């Protein structure tokens, strides 16, 4: 049922992405033209300064559509960032076997596969980075033969890709040992996703599970690793199950603050709620090269944690961050007003509610709400008229008239006559 849902996602309106372009890439390394499929996000033309992570798909002929579905759906809900996708065509004339052919003794690229490796690293990636607005964060994905081949990019001292989606890799000799050692010792942050299924060849399954065991044994703080073994899935339906999980694993930190993150990582803090929010967005920028404004929902999550823990002074720091992120909005004034209100300083709270009233509305913060809050608080500290006379003594009509405040509505000329 899950993979059927993902298939439906793949049929979701591709209007969310620009039209997929087919490009003939003239490769000196391959001594031929290679067909590429390039998909740009919907916002690419609308936002000429924005940069995007790069996803390179081996087996682009059949992997492009399954990847588009979850990416369109995830970006619609702001769960996944928009990415530039480049799929390499390998489906004609036994091309994938030629591209990924290995030496039978060493299990390493040989002949044409060396050329294909160089084509990706020395021609394709530099060309894409020159012609399109990409960040430095790069992902590569493949299935069985191409999944195994993608691992060779890890063998370099400075791996070309930051994230690897390896779906049912057909591992050559010694690769489970080599990859596990590399991932155990890497000093560069690496995301690695690995999967197999009941429908895989039994020997293939055993070697993939052996690779998983070796990776699990060697803990490395620089490695973000996930393994999945799908029951009742075939070698091919495994792809439809793997892709969403892999994408969410890689971009988990870039997602909005969830209920789980709030309950397990934020509200349990004793202090430093605003620092948590700052660090979250610094990680997003440093990891993926994505500069994105702090979401309003994330501001509200931090505000909720501060209020729940009654650490009201932190609202001051949250207000400073709000003014930096949304300088024309009433968000910063609202946070200060809330702080003073919670601390019992109603005059200052009312002042900031009124200050926010003069700025732009944002999310569920409106001018009517800010004005109403200010007026409500003013009632709590407005001066009450002093009653002359002793306790219990009737106030004369003259005294009442003297102490009755002047009408706020001006008297018109007509009333004077």
UniProtKB/TrEMBL annotation:
Gene3D superfamilies the UniProt entry points to: alpha/beta hydrolase, Tetratricopeptide repeat domain
Entry keywords, A to Z: Signal
InterPro entries, sorted: AB_hydrolase_fold (IPR029058), Esterase-like (IPR000801), Mycobacterial_A85_antigen (IPR050583), TPR-like_helical_dom_sf (IPR011990)
Signal peptide: 1-18
Region called Disordered, residue ranges: 385-417
Pfam family, one: Esterase
PANTHER family: ENTEROCHELIN ESTERASE-RELATED, FERRI-BACILLIBACTIN ESTERASE BESA
UniProt protein name: Histidine kinase
Organism: Flavobacterium gilvum
